[in-house]
């Protein structure tokens, strides 16, 4: 259920943003790079921007804004309604019952959505490229496969996995921090967004730095 909410329902938003990003990169690249005789660099730029850098972090922002806030609100309401106390009283561990499924669901969904973002971003760039410089899909695909490396794939998947874990951890943590009043729920949701986005940006910077070391 968590993967359905986090993953499937986010697909339209992910697709639109990925297509737009791929199109913008191609429009800028094909209008500038040929002037310097570096038209082939468009493939490398696409891989760096979409696959390695912006793909994982933009997908993470979308997932946090949609699903992370929902998790914080849901758990916060359960705390206010004393459902957590009821779980403990009946011998159910709220961590294993509430946190673990959401942690696994968000992390796996984040990895799948990252792949989805990459596919749509790169496909979007291909269709936009036809308006400026028509070329066969086989040539376009060959250029991408030549530009991308195993390290790029490993980097983007590692980022998406870590981002998913961060989203789930921060969201559930701030949900459990709600104590007595329902007014704490929106307050903690806002805090989770601030902390979560900050951690995602820091983690992205650190992982990018590690990639180049």
Structurally, the number of domains stands at 1
Indicate the proportion of strand residues: under 5%
Fraction of residues in H or I helices: over 70%
Helical segment count: 8
- Tell me the distance between the termini: 39 Å
Ranges where pLDDT stays below 50 over 5 or more residues in a row are none
Shape category: elongated
Oligomeric state of the chains? single chain
Write the topology of this structure.
Blueprint: H1 2-6, H2 11-32, H3 41-80, H4 83-89, H5 94-132, H6 137-147, H7 150-176, H8 184-212
Helix pairs in contact: 2-3, 2-5, 3-5, 3-6, 3-7, 3-8, 5-7, 7-8
Account of the 3D structure:
The protein is mostly helical. The protein is 85% helix and 0% strand. The chain has one domain (2-212). The longest helix has 40 residues, at 41-80. The protein is elongated.
Question: Top keywords for this entry?
Answer:
single chain; mainly alpha; 213 residues
In short:
85% of the residues lie in helices and 0% in strands. It is mainly α.
